[in-house]
Design a protein that fits this description.
The structure is a single chain. The chain is α/β, with parallel strands linked by helices. Helix 1 packs across helix 6. 38% of the residues lie in helices and 20% in strands. The structure holds nicotinamide-adenine-dinucleotide.
């Protein structure tokens, strides 16, 4: 009998007001039922927001270094439980153990960074233009933070939002993806064990109804969302109307450029990892490969030779290199796009099929797939597929590659393989993305650097690194005039000078 899980609201694990639940199954073997999770509704969100609002005053007055100390303990506990949580995450989400281990490690890195930020959280002190006057900025927490997260990084992405939000003194309502509710339950357990005051965090499981209720709730002044561009656009519209601070991190269509002077063996390792790691379900996945015509045929052969041997299977089993897609709808979507690619005239050189056989028949497996002959403007070149599908475009020059890279709606990450230093420096300036890698694939962000995209990928904020703290705190300017007389900025500024 599968376990029934609960929400965490007002300091207690509680059943949803709706009385409804959904099944959470292993995508590698759908017979494996992980548990039943609350299918919550607006009433649960209302209770959670009321609780987080109550906790705000006490938490914002807790000194930032003390808030940081709790997050350091969170990091320590995650280190202790890393293997167990990675295992649970692979069972729930499908990616291989090495990757879920990386996902937990990212949470650990973000926790330790946040802990140290508790002893910085700098404002600025700047000279006033007037004599005997002090000018500075301080940071204030904002209130209840509504955090809405996707399935592909079940621990890293919630912590990118939670830890900076908490460190800055906000309280939280987390609405995790309905595809990975177990990992977020484990994460909340860790936060409570580390000593986070109970009402500072709320966990409300469920689908879009929960997310929508959180976005629309008048007592939630900030929303941080990561997910698809379609969902993010909807959330952005609502937040604009309600004057909420909103951070949107959305889809991608990331390109790797391989020039004729590149180290092709290095680029080969990069493209296999970038395109087929996490079964292509990364916002930063390498879904387009722009290859110089002089090395195109050779490089495509090299990729196909290696990709056909990638071992599909349960990510918890030794030797597995590619796990399943997250659910049936995700696999249907990949199949639809493969059909679209064929109709558009692209050539299928590898894959284009489900994973079959005894080991794979109960999961949402799909074989690594490569299309060549892809032309800029085709849908498989423009739209996010979110699966193990690589669209290869032949280019004649770096100029053309830059144009093709920039010719999509999205702007998350890009990469260039070359030995030419001029080309490498040029693309740093000219590729329209939030992140550019040189001689590395389009994936691999580090937790102490800002993360985010431009155009249809993001709305200008950045997660983690030092910039993540800007989103979760309000800058307040403070002037202290100790001259004992009225001094008018811009009017009296230089009137008396020099003495
Ligand atoms: P999704 O948009 O389907 O869901 C994301 C979250 O939004 C889930 O928790 C979902 O329940 C919730 N949601 C759905 N409809 C909502 C609504 N109307 N109002 C409020 N919340 C709602 O995304 P997904 O399938 O879980 O994740 C995959 C997508 O996430 C891809 O597009 C990927 O590129 C993107 N992603 C982006 C980044 C980034 O940093 N840019 C990182 C990871 C994933």
């Amino acid at each position: 009998m599968a376990k029934t899980f609960k929400n965490f609201i007002a300091g207690k694990w509680v059943a949803p007001a709706t009385g409804k639940y959904f099944d959470n199954r292993n995508p590698a073997d759908t017979r494996d039922l992980i548990g039943r999770f609350p299918l919550s509704g607006a009433a649960d969100v209302k209770r959670a927001v009321a609780s987080a609002s109550r906790a705000f005053d006490g938490w914002r007055r807790t000194p930032a270094p003390a808030r940081g100390d709790i997050l350091r303990r969170v990091g320590d506990l995650l280190v202790e439980r890393k293997a167990e949580i990675s295992n649970a995450m692979t069972r729930e989400m499908g990616k291989v153990l090495a990757e879920t281990g990386g996902d937990v490690q990212e949470a650990i890195d973000v926790a330790y960074y946040a802990a140290s930020e508790g002893r910085r959280l700098f404002g600025h002190t700047v000279p006033s233009e007037l004599r005997n006057k002090w000018a500075m900025t301080i940071r204030r927490p904002i209130g209840v933070a509504g955090l809405i997260t996707p399935f592909n990084f079940p621990m890293a992405i919630p912590t990118w939002k939670m830890f900076p939000a908490l460190l800055c003194g906000n309280t939280i309502v987390l609405k995790p993806s309905e595809d990975v509710p177990h990992t977020s339950t484990l994460l909340v357990e860790v936060l409570l064990e580390a000593g986070l005051p109970a009402e500072v965090i709320q966990l409300v499981h469920g689908g879009r109804e929960v997310g929508k209720a959180l976005v629309e709730h008048p007592d939630v002044p900030l929303i941080s969302f990561t997910g698809s561009t379609a969902t993010g656009s909807f959330i952005g519209e609502t937040c604009g109307r309600l004057h909420k601070r909103v951070s949107l991190e959305m889809g991608g269509k990331n390109a790797m450029i391989v020039m004729d002077d590149a180290d092709l063996e290095l680029a080969l390792d990069g493209v296999l990892w970038g395109a087929f790691g996490t079964t292509g379900q990364r916002c930063t996945a390498t879904s387009r490969l722009l290859v110089h015509r002089k090395v195109h045929d050779r490089f495509v052969r090299m990729i196909a030779d290696r990709a056909q041997d990638l071992k599909l299977g349960d990510g918890r089993k030794d030797g597995t290199e590619v796990g399943p897609l997250i659910h049936e709808a995700a696999r249907d979507k990949v199949e639809r796009y493969v059909q679209i690619g064929l109709e558009e005239g692209a050539e299928l050189v590898l894959g284009g099929k489900r994973g079959t056989g005894e080991r794979l028949k109960r999961g949402w497996f799909y074989k690594p797939t490569i299309f060549t002959g892809v032309k800029p403007g085709m849908r498989i070149e423009q739209e996010e597929i979110f699966g193990p599908v690589l669209s290869v475009v032949r280019v004649r020059s770096l100029d053309e590659a830059i144009r093709v890279n920039n010719g999509v709606a999205y702007g998350l990450s890009s990469s260039l393989y070359t030995r030419n230093v001029q080309g490498a420096f040029r693309v740093m300036e000219e590729l329209d993305n939030g992140i550019t890698y040189v001689n590395a694939p389009t994936i691999g962000a580090e937790a102490h650097l800002p993360f985010g995209g431009i155009k249809a990928t993001g709305n200008g904020h950045r997660e983690v690194g030092w910039q993540g703290y800007d989103f979760f705190s309000e800058t307040k300017v403070v002037y202290v005039d100790y001259s004992g007389k009225l001094q008018r900025a811009q009017i009296d500024t230089y009137a008396g000078a020099p003495d």
